[in-house]
Amino acid sequence: MPRQNNAARHDSSATAVNPLESLSRLLAGDMKKVNALILQNMQSSVPLIPQLASYLIAAGGKRIRPLLTLACTQMYGGDMTRAHRLAAAVEFIHTATLLHDDVVDESGERRGQDTANLIFGNQASVLVGDFLFSRSFQLMVQEGSLDVLRILSDAAAIIAQGEVMQLSTTGNLETTMDNYIDVIRAKTAALFAAACEVGPVVADQAPAAAQAMAEYGMNLGIAFQIIDDTLDYAGGQEKIGKTVGDDFREGKMTAPVLIALQRADAGEKAFWARTIKDKNQEKTDLAAAQGILARHDAINLSMAMARSYAQKARLALAEAPDGEIRALLDDIVTFTIEREF
Question: At the N or C end, where does the chain have fewer CB atoms within 10 A?
């Protein structure tokens, strides 16, 4: 039965301990095996492949996606050996998309260090990303489940579509909030959803359980990305692991900008047209953009939007078996929308 009331868990004290770290400790033995599979499967007779892949994977990160696969499998009593392969596949898909993203966005920093494309070049980054995608599919085939193959391969296809959709919205002041949500649903949330959905599938649960976990992951992923986009204007560079204002400089249409545009006067619309559409930016424009966002309360309104998706995630999670893992997954929702990085 779902817990009756989680309100007490979502006060300011709920995030005093990072629930991702708590979940990592709880699943440390399983994550160790996942990491071993990752290292094993990124090996190649072509030296540049493991060299570049290890550079990005060794950079760390929260490992939230493979952790979600492990947690959702454990929560439903599934075979953790199968979950190890799938968690590694999920991380390879994610890593491949990071490599491709940084090339498309011409990014120079990720997680506080130079991006792989800056060090190894765009061609190598794209091709090693393709290699990691291929490895993820090999791991899926080893799993031997057509349902799992369908879930993860569909996610990979949706992510690629999301990348293309974002190209059409970048610098486009006609972008709507629905367009934006469609992009992040595909680019980010689809893999969150798939990472969670495969857990009940591996545990041979009813389709309703897999659907509930997919809904949890999807809404968590949307909330995660809205907050990420908001922090690009409101976070601290040393915390978020990338240059503040990257989205602004790249002309990305994200929640804060869309909210400000909806409320903009003629002068502000001209500012956004010059800086976002035409990418004619001056040194003081980021600060000016932040001032416009503050004037229209765009940061707080973006965070409120993220909280609405977080609540949907909690409602879906309430269908899962009660216990320590469900409690941590619930706290991860809170951590996602209250984080500073």
Answer: N
